[in-house]
Design brief:
Blueprint (H helix, E strand, L loop, with lengths): L9 E5 L3 H11 L4 E4 L3 H10 L2 E6 L9 H10 L4 E6 L6 H6 L7 E4 L6 H13 L2 H8 L5 H12 L7 H8 L3 H10 L5 H17 L6 H7 L5 H12 L3 H6 L3 H12 L21
Helix pairs in contact: 1-5, 6-7, 7-8, 7-10, 10-14, 11-12
Length: 280
């Protein structure tokens, strides 16, 4: 029985303590993809090149709090959520007190806050502020299968799902998925998956240091030109124009306008009417 879309976001980590990394993996299980980095340079590179929305780091890599690296990362990628996962010692108290002011969005103290349930709750709190939550709010009142198909198209955009894989995740025959989308006025699965990638791409464009070419690479477009052509075909806009018009919110609005403000779901053999939430 299908129980809803899996999140499967990308989490980047800089956790030299193998035990801390393992606790995180145990807590989130298969809900997210974890990319482990060895140093700050590789962390920044992964966050810029992949659709990372959450990074969990040990502030004291190298022995001291490296807030300069934190500020640099937040300046380049202000949409990125940063959580510190550290072992507490008395000499670190002042730095931990200062972590929020320096750009950290959350703090995990090893052996106090890192039980699996607590870690998962922290990750889910970060997720609740994410792009997926914005999309979910925009689809209030939409058929549950359609809503979950759109959410999967967004949260798994980096995997470049096929229509068959989307149907498997929904635990429904592909024909049924296509029919439910059609009944609700939404695009067919292949086009819906492209819309999902465009929503994520637009979200990444909101961080102005991400180039269109890097975003194309992160989301597995054949090339930067192919990404730009897709933007023109679906949105009649360049990546720069998408950024200027509001990024992900603009793409979501455009998709829903194409769906239309009303549809006719087949319930009890009679047409119905539903208003989509366009305010994103």
């Amino acid at each position: 029985m299908y129980a809803g879309p899996e999140t499967m976001g990308v989490i980047a980590t800089l956790l030299p303590n193998a035990g801390h990394l393992q606790r995180l993996r145990t807590a989130i299980r298969d809900r997210h993809q974890v990319v482990a980095c060895d140093d700050w340079a590789s962390l920044i590179r992964v966050c810029e090149q992949q659709p990372v929305r959450l990074a969990i780091v040990d502030l004291f890599v190298g022995g001291r709090a490296n807030f300069e690296r934190v500020r640099h990362l937040k300046q380049r990628l202000p949409r990125l959520t940063l959580i510190a996962y550290v072992a507490f010692t008395p000499d670190r108290a002042h730095d931990l007190f200062d972590a929020g002011r320096q750009g950290m969005d959350g703090l995990v103290i090893a052996d106090q806050d890192d039980a699996p349930r607590a870690l998962l709750a922290l990750v889910e709190t970060a997720e609740s502020k994410s792009l997926g939550a914005v999309v979910r709010r925009s689809l209030e009142g939409v058929d549950a299968v359609v809503r979950d198909a759109v959410l999967l198209a967004v949260t798994r955009a980096h995997e470049r799902l096929s229509p068959e894989a989307l149907a498997r995740l929904l635990a429904l025959p592909r024909r049924t998925v296509s029919q439910r989308l059609s009944n609700a006025g939404f695009p067919a699965p292949q086009r819906l998956l492209t819309w999902g990638r465009l929503i994520v791409a637009a979200h990444l464009l909101e961080d102005r240091h991400r180039s269109a070419d890097r975003i194309a690479l992160a989301l597995d477009f054949p090339s930067g030109s192919a990404f730009r052509n897709t933007c023109q075909r679906y949105l009649h806009a360049t990546p720069r124009e998408i950024r200027g018009r509001g990024g992900a919110a603009y793409v979501i609005r455009t998709m829903l306008r194409q769906v239309g403000a009303t549809d006719q779901p087949r319930t009890s053999g009679r047409p119905g009417k539903r208003t989509l939430a366009l305010a994103v």
